[in-house]
């Protein structure tokens, strides 16, 4: 048995969190009965309809690398009508969800999967996947302040976890940093670096766990041909 939201996520319909909203919104029926409790457990024998369509067997789990350009939201829809990454994906890619997000002004590696449960697992800090970035900042880097970020920092009552940040080079008023962390709160890198006097003017994610951006062109996708998932250990 598993919760209905997890089952829907495995089908790649949406993330588990979105599935819970769909259930509460009356969009799901199980064995002919309308469902409103997202904590309901279902079995393989249950007949599940979402928006009137019967769920068949879930597709095999697939995973893609995507080079997100600046100027796109990581969202399936935007009330303000701004462009999203899902508006630009090739028609050959099935419905997918993103593993985490990159904000509109960030670029670089974003993982996409047709398995919402996998996406959620890969996002969790407990899974331990390191997110790696190249970051350009405006300001003069204080190496001591940079090193202290590995202990975490609290800003306006919000606690940010350890951030590994190294100075690559300082050129005039700008500098390039290599940054790594294991959880990604909203605008975390921008907020943390601003706290030590550095303003981020370019942010590129170059790695997520064992997966790298490498030379993938901006806007392009590449399916990861084979990968295995064992407990919390991901290996390409």
Question: Which of globular, elongated, flat, extended, rod-shaped describes the shape?
Answer: elongated
Sheet having the most strands: 9 strands, mixed
The first-level CATH class of the largest domain is given as Alpha Beta
What's the CATH superfamily of the largest domain, by name?
Alpha-L RNA-binding motif
The SS-based structural class is: alpha+beta
Mean pLDDT: 90
Distance between the termini: 30 Å
Radius of gyration in whole Å, from Cα? 20 Å
Q: Tally of extended strands?
A: 19
- Spans of at least 5 consecutive residues whose pLDDT stays below 50 are 229-233
The residue fraction in helices comes out at 10-25%
Number of domains: 3
Tally of separate helices: 6
CATH-defined topology of the largest domain: Alpha-Beta Plaits
- What is the CATH architecture annotation of the largest domain? 2-Layer Sandwich
Order of helices and strands: EHHEEEEEEHEEHEHEEEEHEEEEE
Task: Explain what this protein looks like in three dimensions.
β5 (48-50) and β6 form a beta hairpin. This protein has helices at 4-10, 16-24, 85-88, 116-123, 143-148, 188-195, and strands spanning 2-3, 28-30, 33-34, 41-42, 48-50, 53-54, 63-68, 97-98, 107-113, 131-138, 153-155, 158-160, 164-171, 174-181, 199-208, 211-212, 221-223, 228-230, 233-235. The chain has six helices and 19 strands. Strands 7, 8, 9, 10, 13, 14, 15, 16 and 17 form a nine-stranded mixed β-sheet that branches. The chain has 236 residues and is α+β, with helices and mostly antiparallel strands. It starts with a strand and ends with a strand.
